[in-house]
Specification:
Layout lengths: L5 E5 L20 H7 L3 E3 L2 E2 L5 H10 L3 H4 L15 H7 L3 E7 L16 H7 L3 E5 L11 H9 L2 H16 L19 H15 L6 E6 L11 H4 L21 H10 L6 H31 L6 E5 L20 H4 E2 L2 E3 L7 E3 L3 E2 H12 L15 H6 L13 E5 L2 E5 L3 E6 L5 E6 L17 H15 L4 H13 L1 H4 L1 H5 L12
Parallel strand pairs: 1-6, 1-7, 2-10, 3-11, 4-5, 4-6
Antiparallel strand pairs: 2-9, 3-8, 7-9, 12-13, 13-14, 14-15
Helix pairs in contact: 2-13, 8-11
Protein name: DUF4976 domain-containing protein
Keywords: Hydrolase, Metal-binding
Pfam families: Sulfatase
Length: 506
């Protein structure tokens, strides 16, 4: 029997869908991803099922919407007893590995080295693990990366930088467009470290089993501490402008809270372009690491028997609508890049099909011939036949009828043209957009009498989605916010880092 194909899942943190060259962005420099896309299919309308780190990652892991797995934000740890795709792929005969940022459970300051938690990674189904933490945790946290920096003599360089960044941002003294470049050598930062460890894994692999390797880059998540050399590749005057146009219609409570904690009300257009430059430069830096991983696969002759899947957990607002971070259902935070390259590659084509993380869960299980996940299967549809049949296949441009996303007790449903957001508990609509006529989401139609029929049409599938909401897990989430004032604060809930919360920030 021929060996099953390897699977390499490349997953940077917080990369918005339009920040790659293959999306049509002529300003960002992602040569390695563009080469990968040239040998695969790219999906232009892929949504995060929960545009915050932990909600998104749990949905991808377990194939469940947030309403069912219960991680509404970053303040609760995931349940490793839930069925998940990594464990099923392992049981299908694969050696499973993760290298990088997993972010499934809450860590506290000074709680030990990451190797002390390897058993948790094993519980999730990974046989091999080099778990890294969010970069802002390294003011005092220890893991494999801090061991490496200590050996290289750069640990205090990093820690002093992060202390300055976190305190400066928390105090409102350091704006995103003022983030200084990394003080580490270009080949010593956490993203290149992630790439190097992945390269070592591929080069030294000698198991008879196929491998499923997750390469989980911590970047381009803020801080946008891109190296000076990568920043020098860009001109701020050539950066795309942020969406700063005035809006019409009501501002939802969810959006208003993010505006309040982002503090970008006085940001100028040029400052927004500078922030984008720092972010794009970090994207380019991560792209370099991705090129290293692909180069290792080529050097070992594995490209003819390896699926490569590239996506992200969520996007980044980058000043759009005067918001930073994510945690909203605007496309800047919701839309994510997706490229799938099959073994031996294929002629590049694009699909506009509506897809999401849950479809990827199903796709990877089908590639591995793993056992299906039973819970939530009505939400998932494998992309494998669509990819194999190519652009002439009858389903090439046909995706889901509805895509759902949920965070912080707000829920979204979208179809081919319209997007509706509602309170997850009261089900009262808060936002409605015509994505064809208003792709920048400047006109909230939720109170527009002429749009009531559209809202009514979307309320029905949203109600069916929310009918399956796990209320016990909602209460657990609410209790966690109420019992810990830090977790309940607007700053923490909206994603602004603080020096004491470590990886609870988003």
């Amino acid at each position: 029997m021929p060996q099953k194909p390897n699977i390499v899942f490349i997953f940077p943190d917080q990369q918005r869908g339009d920040s790659v060259g293959f999306s049509g962005n002529s300003k960002v420099k992602t040569p390695n991803l563009d080469k990968l896309a040239n040998e695969g299919v790219t999906f232009t309308r892929t949504s995060s099922n929960g545009p915050i780190c932990m909600p998104a990652r749990m949905s991808l892991m377990c194939g469940l919407p947030v309403t069912q797995h219960g991680l509404w934000a970053n303040n609760l740890s995931g349940d490793p007893t839930l069925a998940n795709h990594v464990r099923n792929i392992s049981e299908a005969g694969y050696r499973t590995a993760q290298i990088g940022k997993v972010h499934f459970y809450v860590r506290s300051a000074g709680d030990g080295h990451s190797r002390d938690f390897t058993y948790r990674m094993n519980d999730w189904g990974w046989e091999d693990s080099i778990e890294l933490r969010d970069i802002t945790a390294y003011t005092n946290a220890d893991c494999f990366y801090t061991d490496y920096l200590k050996e290289q003599g750069y640990l205090e360089t990093l820690r002093n930088y992060i202390r300055t960044y976190v305190r400066g941002e928390a105090a409102g003294l350091l704006r995103p467009w003022e983030t200084p470049p990394s003080l580490l050598p270009n080949d010593k930062d956490i993203d290149i470290y992630t790439a190097e460890k992945s390269v070592e894994y591929i080069e030294n692999y000698n198991d008879d089993r196929p491998f499923y390797l997750q390469v989980l880059f911590p970047g381009p998540h803020n801080p946008f501490d891109s190296p000076a050399d990568d920043r020098a590749l860009y001109n701020p005057d050539e950066m795309p402008d942020a969406i700063l146009d005035p809006t019409t219609g009501p501002v939802s409570p969810q959006v208003q809270r993010m505006k309040d904690v982002s503090h970008l009300g006085n940001m100028t257009a040029s400052q927004a372009r500078q922030m984008r430059l720092y972010y794009y430069a970090k994207v380019t830096h991560v792209d370099r690491g991705i090129g290293m991983v692909i180069g290792a696969l080529k050097a070992k002759g594995l490209m003819d028997n390896t699926w490569i899947i590239y996506t992200s957990d969520h996007g980044e607002m980058l000043g759009d609508h005067r918001c930073s971070h994510k945690g909203l259902f605007y496309e800047s935070a919701l839309n994510i890049p997706l490229c799938v390259r099959p073994p031996r590659g294929m002629t590049h084509w694009k699909s506009r099909a509506l897809t999401d993380h849950l479809d990827l869960t199903e796709t990877m299980l089908e590639i591995a011939d793993g056992s299906a996940l039973q819970e939530g299967k009505e939400y998932r549809s494998s992309l494998l036949s669509k990819i194999i049949n190519g652009p002439e296949g009858k389903s090439a441009q046909q995706g889901k009828q509805h895509v759902f996303s949920d965070i912080r007790l707000y829920s979204m449903v979208r179809n081919d043209r319209f997007k509706l957001v509602a309170d997850s508990l009261t089900r009262d609509p808060t936002e409605l957009y015509d994505m064809s006529a208003d792709p920048n989401q400047l006109n909230n139609l939720v109170d527009n009498s002429e749009a009531r029929g559209i809202a009514t049409e979307l309320i029905e599938p949203l109600n069916a989605h929310l009918d399956k909401l796990d209320h016990a897990k909602v209460k657990k989430y609410q209790d966690a916010l109420g019992e810990n004032p830090n977790l309940g604060s607007a700053a923490d809930r909206m994603g602004v880092p603080t020096i004491n919360t470590e990886e609870r920030h988003e």
